[in-house]
Write a structure and sequence with these properties.
- The chain has about 150 residues and is α/β, with parallel strands linked by helices.
- The protein is elongated, with a radius of gyration of 17 Å.
- A hairpin with a 4-residue loop joins strand 1 and strand 2.
- The protein has one domain: Beta Polymerase, domain 2, CATH 3.30.460.80.
């Protein structure tokens, strides 16, 4: 692990001792429990040593047993990206805190993930379906079925 990533690991450990940090193929990956996401995200954005001030991407993931959210965040000052991952164990009613107060650009990303995966973002300023207003399911979930439009053999 590089010296920069070692320092990042120490900084993150001071905020969330349970966070897991690994060097991924392309980016440093930080896995955090959902209840610790907001404190870690706030720290990563506001701390002058990290300054991750731009949310580049927010994606939903269906891991099968649980759902997850993946955040690609950048430091525009340092031209550096890290990935923050979290998993939500409750598939029936998945809820995680919104990061829109930290990165306002997350508003549409979170709406898209809600629409396609059914993950609710608590305290989102306008959480409603984005594309599928009349749909009752979440088409990017692995357990989604559509007997009319999906052809199976």
């Amino acid at each position: 692990m590089s010296e920069i990533n070692h320092n990042l690991e120490e900084l993150i450990g001071s905020v969330d001792a349970d966070a897991r940090i690994v060097e991924g193929k392309q980016f440093t990956e930080i896995t955090v429990q959902p209840e610790n996401l907001i404190s870690l995200a706030t720290f990563l954005k506001d701390n002058p040593m990290t300054c991750f001030d731009f949310l580049a991407c927010l994606s939903g993931v269906d891991y099968g047993e649980d759902l997850g959210v993946v955040y690609h965040i950048r430091s525009t000052r340092d031209n550096r990206t890290v990935v923050v991952k979290t998993r939500i164990p409750d598939r029936k009613d998945p809820v995680i805190e919104s990061v829109t107060r930290i990165w306002p650009g997350a508003e549409y990303h979170e709406r898209e993930v809600f629409d396609l995966f059914g993950i609710k973002f608590a305290n989102h300023p306008d959480l409603r379906r984005f594309f599928l207003e009349r749909s009752s399911g979440y088409p990017l979930r692995k357990d989604y079925t559509d007997d009319i439009n999906i052809v199976t053999k």
